[in-house]
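hiii, so i know i said id send this last week but things got crazy w the move. better late than never?? heres the sequnce for the chain we talked about at the cafe, plus the structure i predicted for it. fair warning i was half asleep when i ran it
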Amino acid sequence: MNLFQLIEECQRRSGYNDVNFNYVWVTFLNSGIREFARSHPWPGLEDLLTLYTDGTDYLILPHFVDTVCALHNMTDGVPVTALDNFSRENSHQYAQRTSGSVNQYYKLGEVAALRAPSGYIWGRSASPSDTDTVYVTGRISNSGASGTALSETQRTASLTIAGTSPVTLGTLFTNILSISRTTEANGDLYFFDAGATNAHISFLSQYETQARFRRLQLFSPPAAATRFELKFRYKLAPLRNYYEAPPPAVRPDFLISFALERFYQHQSEFQKAQVQAGKTAMILAGEANKEENFNEPDSRVYPLIPDDFDDE
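okay and structure toks below
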């Protein structure tokens, strides 16, 4: 089912046919796709990627990485485990900044750029018809005394995209805090650092309104060019056009029940919302052993029963 068919089915089951509400149905359905992917990631949603450190103890992941599943230090041949918070064991390493083999990492959230720019930033779109405005927020250097709060201030500057033609931002930033826009573009937006031989510094996809790169901090600080293998989950592009369909692995009945649950919550009809929540839970439970039963002659999904199951 494509997006238009899913919306029609949600309207039919809810009895709410206001076309002005369609954008809300789209939001509910896209949330359902992400929830299904989180609960039952399908083959192809997860992949492997090789990354190298740049001499710092940070590892900034590509824009298409949504979830970090596993990280392996290929140079030293050890797995790298995630830290929930700074503990006593790694706080000493953090303070001393002693280099060594990386076997732990800490999730630091998201950043807008791959690195701080060394010159002026310029950007362009992949579509010749893009003319939207991009807002860049960052820090700029002033003439204040070094080491004081006067040495840097925060500022927001706008950049009007001119299709595929390069447009340079007139403000010289020392650090980028955010890159955003208010409307969706017709193509992906690319940003470059003129001071680093036009190196790629940031990216904003067609469907996103804010540049985001996930960042990890590594313990202990690794040597430059340390090689890592990342097992990750792809970021899913949201459905926007009526002819688009969700990934084939995502069950339409789950998306419809999920959207109806959110709709009834929105309408404060909580009993109906609970009914739909039960349906979505049953659908997810039925997907639990889908791969184990893939070759069943019947198209239904049966629960996996261990060989040593005891009926008594």
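btw The longest strand covers residues 65-73. thought thatd interest u
miss u guys!!
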